[in-house]
Amino acid sequence: MTSAIIAMAVALVMGIATIGPALGQGNAAAKAMEGIARQPEVAGELRTTLIIALAFMEALTIYGLLIAFMLLLRM
Known about the structure:
This protein is an all-alpha fold.
C-alpha cells in the first residue's frame, strides 16, 4: 500500500513540476516575441533576459525531478 502511495506521489510531483514551468515558459516566450515585434531595437536585451528566465523556470522542473527520485528511493 505504501509503495502505491509513493508511486502516485511521484506521478503527481512530476506532473505539477512539468506543467507549471512549461506554461510559464510558453507565456514568457510569447511575451518576449511580442516585445521584439513591437520594438526590434531591444531584441538583444529581451533575448538575454528571456534565456535567463527560461533557465530559472527549467530549474524548477529539475527540482521536481530530484524530489521524484528521492521519493522513488524510499520505496
